[in-house]
Design brief:
Helix content is 29%, strand content 34%. The chain has four helices and seven strands; from the N terminus they run βααβββαβαββ. A seven-stranded mixed sheet has the order 1-2-3-4-5-7-6. The relative contact order is 0.15.
Length: 163
């Protein structure tokens, strides 16, 4: 497996990776286009294309030149990065590709002189919450948003230089 930056040229491929990966979550929690149109499983290529701005860093996980995973970092300023759209195709899960992608993103933030990564999760998705916690993220709170039918959990990872 190799992790490398992806460009808008790769967008149709990684968009499908994101949608397929998040479809398992949508099924688990009963999300549909009707009751949760903003869920990542329904993300459009246009929405992903609109993220390409200065400070946006998208990365793909490749196995034999096939994109099997994706994660993006967005520089929010003041040393804070948001990590989003973290996805591994279901058939490639439990092979440590997700951890490798997460560790890669952590290294990128350190290389970019960042001090913190923030993420948002489905608060009731304890499997994901526990996985991030096991990888150094700390739960910082929850918030309810009108655009989604679930409580959003917020977590963060602080670089070792800031601890």
């Amino acid at each position: 497996m190799e992790i490398k930056p992806v460009t808008a040229q790769h967008l149709p491929e990684y968009a499908e990776v994101i949608r397929q990966s998040f479809t398992t979550v949508a099924r688990e929690f009963g999300f549909t286009r009707e009751n949760c149109p903003g869920h990542t499983s329904f993300i459009t290529d246009e929405t992903l294309r609109s993220k390409y701005k200065p400070g946006y860093y998208p990365f793909g996980s490749f196995v034999d030149e096939k994109i099997v995973g994706f994660a993006a970092l967005q520089n929010l300023g003041n040393g804070v990065f948001e990590m989003s759209d973290v996805a591994i195709l279901p058939t490639y899960r439990h092979l440590k590709y997700g951890k490798a992608l997460l560790d890669f993103c952590k290294m990128q933030v350190v290389a970019l002189s960042g001090q913190k990564i923030e993420i948002s999760i489905i608060e009731d998705n304890t499997r994901v919450k526990n996985w991030y916690a096991a990888n150094g993220f700390v739960h910082t709170g929850t918030k309810r948003y009108a655009s989604v039918p679930f409580l959003v959990g917020h977590m963060e990872w602080i670089t070792s230089t800031e601890r």
